[in-house]
Amino acid sequence: MQLTTLKTAVAAVLTLLTVSTAQAVASPRVTQFPIRADFTSLTDIVPGPDGALYVPDRGLGRVWRVTTAGKIRPIEVGGQPAGAASLGGALWVTDAEGDRIVRLGMDGSQKAFPLPRANVRAAGIVAGPDGALWFAEVTGDAIGRMTADGQVTEYPITPGAFAAQLTVGPDGAVWFSEQSANKVGKVTMAGEVTEYELATPDSLPGPLASADGAIYFATRNANTIVRMTTAGVVTGTYAIPTENANTLGLVAAPDGALYLTEADGVRPMTLDGQFGRRYRVPGAYLVDSLAAGPDGALWFLRSSDAIVGRIDIGYEPPVVATGVTFTMRAGRDAEGTVATFTGGARNYEATIKWGDRTTSAGWVRRTADGSFEVRGEHRYAKPGTYDVTVKIADDAKVTSQAVVTR
Fold first, then answer.
1. CATH 2.130.10.10 region(s) of the chain?
2. Residues 262-274: pLDDT tens digits?
3. Residue 291: closest CA among 53, 38, 131
4. Which superfamily does 12-311 belong to?
5. Confidence of residue 369 (pLDDT cuts 50, 70, 90)
6. Minimal CB count within 10 Å: which of 60, 218, 339, 356?
7. Fold of 320-405
8. Can you tell me whether residue 107 is helix, strand or coil?
9. Backbone phi, then psi, for 304, in 5-degree steps?
10. Stated pTM of the model
């Protein structure tokens, strides 16, 4: 397959991204949180179903839960946790040593599902559009599919491919890179596997991301980001400004740009291959994983230093609110939570219409997992059920319900 350098049209929002050379930003927007434990080996960072970030740790057999406020606690899993994905309100973790996938419930429950073959070294895992989990078998030379009840199907790929990283493509297929085979491949939800050999020998394809109706992936030896159509045609090859960047993380961020790790920093790239100014990570030798967080920031790993980090890219996520049904006693002052919501890290104001023709200000506080709750104090004169309207700044309005007893 011949590599070309055809730039595609970039979305208008991306024209706001300042393009420059490999100059580093002084990093006022970078915050780092150390994991205070010895012998860690952090492998991945992913958003969980509860608004926190999760970090598998092969060295200690744990998964670290990291809130968007930077609070860290361990979850003991055992084995060698390698990759993680969120599906059905739970976190699913591959165990590269135990040949199993472990379901971590948000209630603290755990259930392990054994894989049908031994020594496959399951690594990257994603939730597929078919409601199943898809994972890479590094030494098993296959892409696996597992249903939520543990039924596994394996689809063979090139022997010795060393496939470890996956993404869901815009075509609904699961895409993967084959580092040792110098290929990028895909498997459809029907199990049809197609592999595309790269024109540059030994380019070492690595992390992938889906954006602009195409697949982007990093080639670590060639020091490029490559754009490939869902038909396997390369339509752009973009040289990374930093020499020997060793890009280990690539993600499509909510601001419309791609972000890639390179040595001791993280850099944005527009979808037509224009590179922006780099966010330098102080003290880093290598930044080796990247995720878009639920707070609109980018989250990264420094595995060798046992550090989780956050980069504020200036994106404000939309407010997503849910009303909360609550109970009060008639004739008594009471305080309670009337709504919860997620959003950016800023100060919010809230107004509560209590449903009895009275209105008051609520107060907003951040919870341990980084989300927010709206609380208010009120006294209902009579028992009954009242529809309560909560307005959060100019961003959202939700209805909750007050059940008032005698």
1. 12-311
2. 999 999 999 999 9
3. 53
4. YVTN repeat-like/Quinoprotein amine dehydrogenase (2.130.10.10)
5. confident
6. 356
7. Immunoglobulin-like (2.60.40)
8. coil
9. -65, -20
10. 0.83
